[in-house]
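hiii so um. not sure if this is the right channel but i have a protein structure encoded as tokens and i wanna go backwards to a sequence. like what aa goes where. can anyone help
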């Protein structure tokens, strides 16, 4: 089924004394992998939280899959993986997932809360009986991702899922995101690692709460006459300085 992704108008989020999101207009298409890139403190988490509907916003509108962000009916349709893994260390991988699946069912959600299915999607079928506290960082990220996939979300929001992982693990996680998008899920991934840009269908570059650019990776390089996303970002900052 076609849906409308995310539509943001005149969004402002103030956190402490900072305009974490400063007058942002943004459309994120459905069915693609969109990368939200920007340095630490540029407002990525605040923007993602506004999309998921857990951020108090000062003004503006955020519409997700055709509904106001945070609407109760979006709860099942949106999966969110925060920066800190939401995994119980004293349970095995499968026990963690069964626990979260039971929570979904207790809310009346019976839509494919299949533990085996999500374990296979994130490539952890073999690790089901392993205690979470014995997992590597990369495996922990995958368990968090698996919990968010239990409800078969139409939109998956991932906040810096590859932070701290080595390049090989990062590459394999990105392949997993691609596979999830190919199944029809809209994926939004934040990162401050610019070389992850080439893995996205669409890029949104953020700086100081503002959108510096919204373009495909190729458009971005062409527009800035640069050869990689990091140089493109620096070139755009230079233009604004
Ligand atoms: N709880 C808070 N109280 C006060 N200021 C905050 C709070 N959370 C975030 N901020 C400020 O809001 C701005 C945006 O923060 P945000 O976490 O959205 O950025 P980010 O791009 O996700 O950063 P990072 O990559 O480090 O997670 C920053 O200047 C930050 O200092």
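sure thing!! here u go:
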């Amino acid at each position: 089924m076609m849906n409308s992704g995310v539509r943001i108008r005149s969004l402002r989020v103030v956190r402490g004394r900072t305009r974490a999101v400063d007058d942002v207009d943004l459309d994120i298409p459905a069915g693609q992998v969109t990368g939200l890139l920007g340095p630490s403190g540029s407002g990525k988490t605040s923007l993602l939280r506004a999309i998921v509907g857990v951020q108090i916003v000062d003004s503006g509108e955020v519409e997700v899959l055709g509904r106001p962000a945070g609407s109760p009916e979006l709860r099942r349709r949106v999966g969110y993986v925060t920066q800190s893994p939401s995994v119980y260390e004293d349970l095995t991988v499968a026990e963690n997932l069964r626990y979260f699946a039971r929570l979904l069912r207790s809310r009346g959600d019976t839509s494919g809360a299949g533990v085996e299915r999500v374990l296979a999607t994130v490539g952890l079928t073999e690790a089901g009986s392993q205690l979470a506290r014995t997992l590597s960082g990369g495996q922990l990220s995958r368990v968090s991702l698996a919990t968010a996939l239990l409800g078969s979300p139409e939109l998956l929001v991932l906040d810096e899922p590859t932070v701290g992982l080595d390049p090989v693990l990062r590459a394999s996680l990105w392949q997993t995101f691609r596979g999830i998008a190919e199944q029809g899920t809209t994926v939004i991934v934040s990162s401050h690692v610019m070389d992850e840009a080439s893995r996205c269908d669409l890029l949104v570059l953020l700086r100081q709460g503002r959108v510096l650019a919204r373009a495909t990776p190729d458009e971005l390089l062409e527009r800035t006459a640069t050869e990689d996303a990091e140089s493109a970002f620096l070139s755009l900052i230079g233009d604004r300085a």
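oh and The first strand starts at residue 6 and ends at 15.
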